Amino acid sequence: MLVLSPDGRQGEIGMFLHPDTSGLGYSLEAGAALVDLAFRELGLHRVVGRADERNRGSVQAMERMGLRREGRFVESELRQGEWVTAVLYAILGSEWLSRQNPPS
User: Fold this and answer.
1) CATH code at 2-100
2) Which of 11, 12, 30, 47 has CA 20 to 30 A from 71's CA?
3) CB under 8 Å to 92, separation ≥6 — which residues?
4) What is the rounded distance in angstroms from the CA atom of residue 16 to the CA atom of residue 32?
């Protein structure tokens, strides 16, 4: 978890997992735990996540956690000598908490 804003109310999640763990659900489990920590323990207002748009596992994990796609940045990051297109996802604390604790 990286706190992005000077007032400490926005953060970014990110993770790198070994390729052998692909498809085992670890990114979804770890990502959800980080988002939950951000809102319940750190009191953040908003959390964002970024991924190379070709990384379907990361994109699907963010979507399954309930993050919404907010942007696409064409050739915005240079990785290992290649320009990649990044996608940005985000969720608000109020959205996350209402999904985790639906009204009875």
Assistant:
1) 3.40.630.30
2) 30
3) 45, 46
4) 15
Q: Which residues contact 65 (CB under 8 A, 6 or more apart)?
A: 28, 31, 32, 35, 91
Residue 99 CA: distances (Å) to CA of 23, 34, 67, 78, 85: 24, 15, 11, 35, 30
Structure tokens at 33: 């735990």
Residue by residue, pLDDT tens for the chain (104 residues) are 667 677 879 999 987 777 888 788 888 898 999 999 999 999 999 999 999 999 998 899 999 999 999 999 999 999 999 999 999 999 999 999 998 876 55
Residue 73's alpha-carbon distances to 15, 36, 48, 50, 104, in angstroms, are 19, 26, 14, 10, 40
